[in-house]
Design goal:
mainly beta, Immunoglobulin-like, 10-stranded antiparallel β-sheet, 6-stranded mixed β-sheet, 19 strands
Length: 302
């Protein structure tokens, strides 16, 4: 690749490719693991209550006296950027829990809630939380909308798996507003685990979401090479569900080509010694749009 000099001009191009598909809408079920978890701890005594952050893998409730208590709860984030809440038909939570070693006798029991929307959005997932944010997080989890009323419990110190139906649009007993409490931005769900009795270890949590739409296509890989002073060869992985590929140039939104192949040569480029190419793939299907971004790539024209 030729070396660049300060006097040489770098041309910036950006291309995106639209994958046109004609698949029928259907019900798809995806399994989504949590992407973030965050715990909150309230400790109360004669002098009042203090709040701390935590990992969220253990929730606990103790109340040895009216003036001396400790409670830990947690929230879990499940991201689903490939579809929106209005397409969701059914949600099943799969959670693996155990009675923690130092629990009191009997069962440990917890409830599942959707944290309050306002504080759930205001309290960050990353970095250290202020004292006020730690208190907000605890109360956000504690007073959220209950999505599994009866609670779940275990007397076993070995992990046990529970599958809980927390939403179904075709069955009674689920509030029509339930999904609005999860997250109004429509690209994630947040669930909180609040203890009722004892200390519970949360070993894993995932959700199975059935929604109206199409399966997410495999992410195509991209490459770009040049064998002349004015052209670049674009190559990408073929998408089986696509019938054509539309190649656009993003700086002027110009349609360059429509092709059924998974490669195309962009010609007529300025014959400078180097060009920076940035690709964006916009995959459009019947009910969904998928955006895949690739970092800029330096291509030297021959």
């Amino acid at each position: 690749m030729p070396k660049l000099h300060k006097t040489q001009l770098l041309l910036f191009f950006s291309f995106f490719i639209i994958f046109s598909t004609f698949t029928y809408c259907q019900d798809i079920t995806e399994t989504i693991n949590y992407s973030q978890r965050q715990g909150a701890d309230e400790q109360c005594s004669f002098s009042g209550c203090t709040y701390f952050g935590g990992f969220g893998d253990i929730i606990s409730y103790t109340n040895s006296s009216v003036t001396n208590s400790s409670t830990k709860n947690a929230r879990y984030l499940f991201e689903h950027p490939n579809f929106t809440n209005d397409k969701i038909k059914r949600i099943v939570l799969e959670v693996e829990i155990s009675k923690y070693g130092f629990s009191t006798s009997g069962s440990t029991i917890m409830q599942i809630r959707a944290p309050q929307t306002s504080c759930n959005e205001d309290v960050p997932w990353f970095g250290g939380l202020s004292f006020a944010e730690q208190e907000d997080l605890f109360n956000c989890n504690l007073f959220g909308n209950i999505v599994f009323q009866d609670g779940i419990g275990t007397t076993n110190i070995s992990p046990t798996t529970h599958n809980l139906l927390i939403y179904d649009e075709n069955l009674s007993g689920f509030s029509s507003q339930t999904l609005a409490y999860f997250n109004p931005s429509n690209d994630s769900l947040t669930l909180s685990f609040t203890p009722i009795v004892g200390d519970t270890g949360i070993h894993s949590a995932k959700i199975h979401i059935t929604y109206e739409g199409n399966s997410v296509p495999d992410t195509p890989s991209l490459s770009a090479t040049s064998n002349s002073t004015s052209s670049i060869n674009l190559n990408w992985t073929n998408i089986n569900s696509s019938t054509s590929y539309n190649v656009f140039r993003c700086d002027n939104n110009q349609l360059i080509a429509t092709t059924i192949n998974n490669s195309y040569t962009v010609s007529g480029l300025n014959s400078e010694p180097a060009i920076v190419i940035k690709f964006r793939l916009l995959i459009i299907m019947v009910f969904q749009t998928f955006l895949i971004v690739q970092a800029p790539q330096l291509i030297g024209l021959q």
